Amino acid sequence: MKAEFYPLQFDPILKERIWGGEKLKTVLNKPIVSKITGESWELSTVEGDVSIIANGDLKGKSLTEIIEQWPNEVLGTEVYARFGKQFPLLFKFLDAREDLSIQVHPNDELAKKRHNSFGKTEMWYIMQADDDARIIVGFKENSNAKEYLESLKNKTLLTLLDDVKVKAGDVFFLETGTVHAIGAGMVVAEIQQTSDITYRIYDFDRKDAQGNTRELHVDLALDAINYNKVDTFKEYTKVVNQSNSIVDCPYFTTNFVPLDGEIEVKKEGKTFTVYMCIDGNFEIEYKGSKYHYKKGDTVLLAAAMNSYLLKGKASILEVVIS
Fold first, then answer.
1. What digits encode the pLDDT tens for the residues 147-177?
2. Helices within the chain (DSSP H only)
3. Position 198 in a domain
4. Is 200 an annotated catalytic residue?
5. Does the first or last residue of the chain, that is N or C, have fewer Cβ atoms within 10 Å of its Cβ?
6. What is the pTM of this model?
7. Is residue 229 part of a domain?
8. Which structural domain range is residue 24 located in?
């Protein structure tokens, strides 16, 4: 059977978190019902959390089902050749009402050996930030395992780590091994490898509603951490009606598209494309039909969709694998 592809949207997978809030509803119009919703998984094939198509003829089918049936057409010839029938990325929006735990993600090699998983290289686009919002990213100066363990014992870890004030539009690229935490008071678009492997190393001694602290993974994190100072902030251009490169790494390429009018897009079938609407409204015109999107929407365009128009006034993140 030959599929007639069109821009695909998916039901958000909403996650309650101890640090979550209500901004996914008030800022991004997500259908949350809890006052501690921390994440909306927009596109996922993580086991147990596979995205389901919400629109059109393929509605009700899962992302893994359509990849299984049409791998080249959905993923693209080059992505399929490299990853097989795995969707290699995970897309999320996060609302941090409180600080997230300080954590680190293992690289591909370690994650494969320990968890049979991809590593977790990721990027953050800050969509909204309160005046005093900050993140933790890496060490202030080059450190080592001994100094790090000593600081955990003495509860002085925060003195070793670099914290950075953030504002809307800031982008941070976190390679595996970077110790990090999203701070309170921000909404973030997150693009990452398909992985849910997180080593939590410090959680501010918080307790949940039952009075329990969350599990820490200090030992597992020890050889996953990059103890050197890292530069995570990404400068990028904002030329209107163009794809402005923000991050170009082996796992994904993310461009910033300030749309004001119309852009004709032509592809070669090598990779799927994902658009995350960061602000404003836009539409995709494909084969005579128009599909409309607003702030907080995420849309997957199968690789077989190789010619279409973007129209409107919006800020968009465009993600491919190149």
1. 999 999 999 999 999 999 999 999 999 999 9
2. 23-26, 63-69, 71-75, 77-83, 108-115, 145-153, 157-160, 218-222
3. yes
4. yes
5. N
6. 0.95
7. no
8. 13-73+85-222
